[in-house]
Amino acid sequence: xIATASGQLGIVRFAVSALEFxxxxxxxxxxxxxxxxxxxxxxxxxxxxxxxxxxxFRKHDRVDINKINDLGHDVKRLRDERNIMSxxxxxxxxxxxxxxxxxxxxxxxxxxxxxxxxxxxxxxxxLYKLSIGEDVAQILPxxxxxxxxxxxxxxxxxxxxxxxxxxxxxV
Length: 171
Description:
This protein is α/β, with parallel strands linked by helices. It is 51% helix and 19% strand. The protein has a 4-stranded mixed β-sheet with strand order 2-1-3-6. It has a two-stranded antiparallel ribbon with strand order 4-5. The chain has a two-stranded parallel ribbon with strand order 7-8.
């Protein structure tokens, strides 16, 4: 099973009969939960795995490849052997992007963070793809894409297609 690392890796598991919450409650998670409850179809359970930045890195800003590989193997095994699908909710794009860029100290910190995030997102997707051993889907929702009367069902339909097809969404 997936182990927690100093509270940085949280799991929310949705079963048809019961809900277990292991992650801090906030509005976005609440709405993702609502849609995922609706989405339970072909899988016995769907779990949300929250991966904090500290869970991705070791000391001295080095990516913890072993931990990421273990996570990837665990979620794939859960899907394939126990019919439990995982949705990965990850942090770390900015930190990973800063490492990849090799630059720090831009005058505009917002621009620096956005540049780092844009590079880090790609790096994160590659790490998850390699650790799981198959394609993953990058999902970048905003509140409107979930709460809007027209966009909400479209978001749910997209998630349903990914989950039913066995593709791991990475939010």
